[in-house]
Specification:
- It contains 6 helices and 13 strands.
- By secondary structure, the chain is α+β, with helices and mostly antiparallel strands.
- The chain has a 6-stranded antiparallel sheet. It has a 4-stranded antiparallel sheet with strand order 2-6-1-7, with helices on one face. Strands 3-5-4 form a 3-stranded antiparallel sheet, covered by helices on one side.
Length: about 220
């Protein structure tokens, strides 16, 4: 890929965030005009928690941005709770991801580095996440299904690698991953290689088909 193509090609990257500042970084990346993805669940607030969130949202104005932890839909307020602590994804060009890294390391602003962008095994280049992996991960994370478990990359090596499969039906239709036997149950494991994996609860074999083509590889920049 030549330099001009790098300037316009946007890829997904994973960012590890320190100090529980994931929502702060989400706001900053949004202000930079970048697309982000944060795996969250929406929890409806009631009682005192609802009132406290309502007060925070009411403070929004020309000089105070809305608290991005909360979503208001009519009279109902939800809190966005990360499914994976301190992990956010950003879609950016090669020059833009360098700007993100500068922001993360700007100690004059944060006092300490705010986090880091995941890199390849040799640490020389940023790790680009293939679109197919990102799509399957988002499909599972946003499914609302119970029993999801998230694993750091170094944790999943404990489980035997199974067949690569595609889900044929149900809320996970189209997701691709690997069949793993985890805690004695057959489960679908969807990986973002080198970063994170999510395992579903038990999934029956009749909903699956084997995938024979090679997994999608990240585009080089």
């Amino acid at each position: 890929m030549d330099k001009d193509q790098q300037e316009i090609q946007r890829n997904w990257y994973a960012v590890k965030v320190f100090f529980n500042k994931v929502f702060n970084l989400e706001d900053i990346l949004s202000d930079m005009g970048l697309e982000t993805y944060l795996a969250v669940q929406k929890v409806q607030l009631k009682g005192a928690a609802h009132m406290a969130a309502a007060r925070k949202l009411a403070q929004a104005g020309p000089y105070h941005r809305p608290d991005s932890r909360y979503i208001q839909e009519g009279p109902v307020i939800y809190e966005r709770k990360p499914l994976v602590n301190s992990l956010i994804f950003v879609k950016a060009t090669a020059p833009q991801i360098k700007e993100v890294e500068f922001c993360l390391k700007n100690e004059a602003f944060w006092y300490k580095p705010l986090g880091f962008i995941y890199r390849k095994a040799d640490f020389k280049e940023y790790a680009i996440i293939p679109e197919a992996q990102m799509a399957s991960f988002r499909l599972v994370a946003e499914s609302g299904l119970s029993g999801l478990e998230f694993f750091a990359e170094d944790e999943i090596t404990r489980y035997k690698t199974g067949d690569r499969v595609r889900v044929l039906g149900g809320p996970l239709k189209g997701a691709e991953g690997y069949i793993k036997r985890i805690k004695k149950n057959q489960r679908l494991l969807v990986c973002i290689e080198g970063v994170i994996a999510v395992a579903t609860s038990y999934i029956p074999s009749e909903l699956l088909e084997k995938v024979t083509e090679e997994p999608c590889q990240p585009k080089e920049t």
